Amino acid sequence: MANRQQYIRNFAIIAHIDHGKSTLADRIMEMTSTVSDRESSAQQLDDLAVEKAHGVTVKSKAVRNYYTDANGDEYQFNLIDTPGHVDFNYEVSRSLSATDGVLLVVDATKGVQAQTVANFRLAKEANLTIIPIVNKIDNNMADVDGTINQILDLDADFADQEILKISAKSGLGVDKVLEAIRDRIPAPRGDDHAPLKALVFDSKFDPYKGVVAQVRIFDGQLTSQTSQLFFANQLSATNKEIGIFAPEMLTLSTLSAGDVGYVVTGVKDSNAIKIGDTITNANHPTQEALPGYQAVEPMVYAGLYPKNSDYKDLKIAIEKLALNDAAFQYEPEQSEALGMGFRGGFLGIFHLQIIRERLLAEFGLEVLTTMPNSTFKLTLKNQDEPLYVENPIQFPDWSKIAQIEEPYVHAKMTLPNEMLNDIMRLAEGRRGTLEDLDTLGSMVVATYLMPISEIAYDFFNELKSVSHGFATLSTEVAEYDYSDLVKLEIAIDYANIDALTLITHRLKAERIAQNMVIKLRDLVPRKLQVMPVQAIVEGRVIARENIPPLRKVAAKGSTVSKKQQQLRRSGQAKSNIELPQAVFDALLDLG
């Protein structure tokens, strides 16, 4: 059966965002007649509305293509599409673990950019065969020779092989890409007769079929009606259907070693199957699982609340999204100001934005999103065990806290040499400490130790702005470390608004508080009476503004009842203020 595997190639396409990765995937599918002219559309594999809207790939996809060479031999090309945005690096690493080689696409008009370098490193670390490709060579702005030199700077080994020159848009040179996939990417080397060993590299939830897992078969055979065992939870189930994406789901009777396809697991519990799990035969199991993936750690937490009190609908939508996105984590949460909702864990602000847009596009749900934050480690007085808090509302009173530590990351920024000074200023302004400075071809790799809270808001956008889109950011979790942090609370009309509570550095607290109360004064809906907005740190008001009334009160004296005045004085006033999303959006700029 080894002969069959000689005609299989499993590969991915990696590139910086907008370098033509999805366009090349479209051309490969057209030239292998995977899709007809009638069925074809731009960004064929980007079927989420948010993917087409942002021009980025968010979810990895797998599709089987059949390529017939000049000798009449038919090959099975399994293309696994990968995202390009830094927030979705985990999707890239997952896709690469199911492949044997990659196409590294570089835009001739822009050259090697930061995410090119980051993705190249991922492929190198996974010991994959890398085929370098220069795209958009027919563009008037193309600098083909300069781009080739930058690719050679990445890895001197590229000099020993042909660097392909193509135009994915017109199809020029794509036939050479198909030949290179056949000739350079190694065939899989699985054993059809060994116990079944299949890697789950993605999954989605179908309301009728249950969990549909995307798998790469490393050893053995998977048939429909196989009694399968999932290693992570020791869960047994009989699959209902297996097949491939071509690019639509196509049912088959058997998937063998080297194949990439899908399994309708028959499991209805959306949390039962983990991404990175190993599937084996329950009757003849393999002795050890595949390495799988490092568990994804959320970098940013934020509250998600239904705008129109449809909590049940939001609950169902979030459960379905969580299955389709292994990095999105959530738990129920209740806020006095916003009611029942969820606290979500995200990879970054762009990931949070994508989740919000998917909730609206796929489920018709508008959500209110609170200020993002990270997890904090508290040491309390007279208590040895540390307390981990994700939600600022749950912080104990400041008088009980001995020390606050926050999580740090090693932030690796890849950028052109001439932009180093600007990037260093930006990083040091966000409490970053330089750890390492390295050169890679024409690029510089600066590694800073930075608090997650400093990169959680708009750091990535600022990095792109300062570097004119040329820099990229990849992060690696570091340890917790001491920071002089304070809890900043907001009271409107003397009632604490828990959804606006945030944790910030003491040196920044006064500036942020002053900006917050000014923005709230302008954005919070007015009432008949004047409403004070106060920013409170450690029991002390450090900033205050008044929200003016809807109209001037004609009669003298207060319009507030005596009971309300008493509640205000005792700090027991309840909030009945509705906060529009514009409030939370405006506060995101304050980091």
Automatic annotation (TrEMBL):
GO terms for cellular component: plasma membrane. GO terms for molecular function: GTP binding; GTPase activity; ribosome binding; translation elongation factor activity. Its EC number is 3.6.5.n1. GO terms for biological process: positive regulation of translation. Gene3D superfamilies: 3.30.70.240, Elongation factor 4, C-terminal domain, Elongation Factor G (Translational Gtpase), domain 3, P-loop containing nucleotide triphosphate hydrolases, Translation factors. InterPro entries: EF-4, EFG_III/V, EFG_V-like, LepA_C_sf, LepA_CTD, LepA_IV, P-loop_NTPase, Small_GTP-bd. GTP binds at residues 18-23, 135-138. It is found in: Cell membrane. Pfam families: EFG_C, GTP_EFTU, LepA_C. Its main location: membrane. Keywords: Cell membrane, Elongation factor, GTP-binding, Hydrolase, Membrane, Nucleotide-binding, Protein biosynthesis. It is a peripheral membrane protein. Residues 6-189 form the Tr-type G domain. PROSITE patterns: G_TR_2 (PS51722). It catalyses: GTP + H2O = GDP + phosphate + H(+). It comes from the Bacteria. Required for accurate and efficient protein synthesis under certain stress conditions. May act as a fidelity factor of the translation reaction, by catalyzing a one-codon backward translocation of tRNAs on improperly translocated ribosomes. Back-translocation proceeds from a post-translocation (POST) complex to a pre-translocation (PRE) complex, thus giving elongation factor G a second chance to translocate the tRNAs correctly. Binds to ribosomes in a GTP-dependent manner. HAMAP family: LepA (MF_00071). Belongs to the TRAFAC class translation factor GTPase superfamily. Classic translation factor GTPase family. LepA subfamily. This is Elongation factor 4. The gene is lepA.
